[in-house]
Amino acid sequence: MGLGVITLRPLGTSDISAVVALEEANQPQPWTVGILEGELAADDRSYVVAEDGEVVGFGGVMVVGEEAHITNLLVAPEQRRRGIARQMMTRLIRDAVGMGARHLTLEVRAGNEAARRLYHRFGLAPVGVRPGYYQGEDALIMWVHDIDSPEYFGSLN
Ligand SMILES: CC(C)(COP(=O)(O)OP(=O)(O)OC[C@H]1O[C@@H](n2cnc3c(N)ncnc32)[C@H](O)[C@@H]1OP(=O)(O)O)[C@@H](O)C(=O)NCCC(=O)NCCS
What is the value of pTM for the model shown? Predict the structure, then answer.
């Protein structure tokens, strides 16, 4: 796996096995083929994969009314801190606004400092806690409003 140029593209059916392998290697409760197939078939979703020769990251967003929810975001450990998650978030937020979203929310493990910092950079602020949501660890619920405003949308790059 090289540290070459990162390309983003929409997740397709042929990426599912690579994404499941990435999930199984890196997530305590990995997404399955069935979950990914369901997400791909569902309306009001956008899923993206990041590629550097092979799939090195993926993420998704679901839009319900004016609310967008980040459903998953993962980068291969050896590819972290290269801005891949930032690129995927930017793409997902743009897609969500294109589907009518005005606000963005997600849940993150309270102890997940890397993800919390990433989300903070996208203006997401913690507004609540779901106690014990992740196998006993608390989840923070984060929100950012008015993602369709020229100020916010224009700040994405
Ligand atoms: C969270 C995660 C997706 C970040 O992916 P990444 O591609 O490494 O993130 P980026 O390189 O785009 O980082 C963007 C910014 O986020 C913050 N950040 C990312 N990783 C960080 C870390 N380990 N420590 C501190 N800040 C971090 C920084 O502000 C960073 O900007 P900088 O590199 O200019 O300082 C990745 O660590 C991961 O896959 N973790 C496991 C899965 C996970 O936790 N997903 C989120 C679930 S809600």
Answer: 0.97
